[in-house]
């Protein structure tokens, strides 16, 4: 199974990379850009046939290794391959 993680800075957390992208877009004429958040996309392939077990593993991976829950929010999606 494939687990797709989508991780981004929490609202209110300083995001210098997002600010740089936002300013660059405005300089290119995209004046309606209000804010940009730059995050991470991670794919993890696991050898698991039980979807519920894969979901539990994804939560543990996020908690223990992939996400800093003080400054980041995340979502994940489990996809059967």
UniProtKB/TrEMBL annotation:
Name of one Pfam family that matches: PurS
Protein location: Cytoplasm
Organism superkingdom: Bacteria
Tagged with keyword Metal-binding: no
Keywords (A to Z) from UniProt: ATP-binding, Cytoplasm, Ligase, Nucleotide-binding, Purine biosynthesis
ATP-binding among keywords: yes
Signal peptide annotation: none
Catalytic reactions on record: N(2)-formyl-N(1)-(5-phospho-beta-D-ribosyl)glycinamide + L-glutamine + ATP + H2O = 2-formamido-N(1)-(5-O-phospho-beta-D-ribosyl)acetamidine + L-glutamate + ADP + phosphate + H(+)
Pathway(s) of this molecule: Purine metabolism; IMP biosynthesis via de novo pathway; 5-amino-1-(5-phospho-D-ribosyl)imidazole from N(2)-formyl-N(1)-(5-phospho-D-ribosyl)glycinamide: step 1/2
InterPro entries: PurS, PurS-like_sf
Assembly description: Part of the FGAM synthase complex composed of 1 PurL, 1 PurQ and 2 PurS subunits.
Stated role: Part of the phosphoribosylformylglycinamidine synthase complex involved in the purines biosynthetic pathway. Catalyzes the ATP-dependent conversion of formylglycinamide ribonucleotide (FGAR) and glutamine to yield formylglycinamidine ribonucleotide (FGAM) and glutamate. The FGAM synthase complex is composed of three subunits. PurQ produces an ammonia molecule by converting glutamine to glutamate. PurL transfers the ammonia molecule to FGAR to form FGAM in an ATP-dependent manner.
Homology family: Belongs to the PurS family.
UniProt name for this protein: Phosphoribosylformylglycinamidine synthase subunit PurS
